[in-house]
Fold this sequence. Notes:
Blueprint: H1 2-21, E1 29-34, H2 42-55, H3 57-60, E2 62-67, H4 72-80, E3 86-90, H5 91-99, E4 113-129, E5 144-146, H6 154-164, E6 173-175, H7 182-187, E7 193-198, H8 203-209, E8 215-217, H9 223-231, E9 236-240, E10 254-266, H10 271-283, H11 285-289, H12 313-321
Parallel strand pairs: 1-2, 1-3, 5-6, 5-7
Antiparallel strand pairs: 3-10, 4-7, 4-8, 4-10, 9-10
The site of glutamic acid has 15 residues, from strand 7.
Amino acid sequence: MFKNIFVIITIIIIIFLVVFFARSPQDRSFVTFGTGGITGVYYPTGGAISSLINKKQDTYNIKSAVASTGGSVFNINAVLAGNIEFGIAQSDRQYEAYNGLAEWESEGPQKNLRSVFAIYPEAITLVASEKSEVSTVSDLRDKRVNLGNVGSGQLQNALTVLKVFGLSEDDVKAEMVKAAEAPGLLQDGRIDAFFYTVGHPNGNIKEAASGRIPVRIIPIEGPGINTLIVENPFYSTTTIPITMYPKSVNTEDIPTFGVAATLVTSSETSEDIVYAVTKEVFENLDDFKAFHPAYETITPESMLEGLSAPLHKGAIRYYKEAGLLERIDDRLLVEA
Ligand code: GLU
């Protein structure tokens, strides 16, 4: 009898403690990471960051989810509209949005945009079918070329590259479909080439290079590209190792230029949430890097480069705590 009463009382106490100490689900914050197409690297990157956050639900009470989206431009606009809390975006699109250039020229500077950290390098990649006889950017004239969907980061890169080589959108038969569709269209002979700004290695380029039709990754280099890089701090030269795409017809690593994939948010996002995301990625960098081979070269220092929108105050709180502030350009610390 006494034993039963003891068991019942113990159960009641346990239930009371659980109810008392557990935070109510109403306190839980839900955050969404805007990424890109599912064949890119943004999508698994959003997944990797989310899984680090979701692992710590007991600490932060944040539930994180990933959305496949049109890419950088879409993500920046969705973050600014308050539809999502975080977005992955190319460093060049981040610069343009904050300064009201290119796709943001009519709306003007997007002063509520905040950077959190840079993630990994992305290369401006041009893939062509062998039978299209494209071996330089100039050969794209009159060819059917996928420049990228509206909302993607690569659309502007494709237009910039064409311009450097004296071409415009009207000099090619331009397609604007999502990167995920491009390998299939190339293999079906419905396009000759496509642009994709993406981390390497990735499934999209592997898919393009693994079909019946042989493909070539086209070098993007020359004096015009060198000038572009000198004039724009968010660009740098890079190479795509052929070992990553053994089925392409290339025999040497492919020179091109690139940007950084970065994480952005809005000044409206809660400081605690941005702090938690920053802290979890920096403090679990080895676990994070194990998620994708494109992250191989990431270091805490590289994650603080290539940013142009001011850092969010939640990110600054973590960098201060981690002793990283002196590595950061003062222009990014307006909220410090
Ligand atoms: N850089 C591309 C964009 O901004 C996305 C690449 C990816 O999804 O990995 O649209």
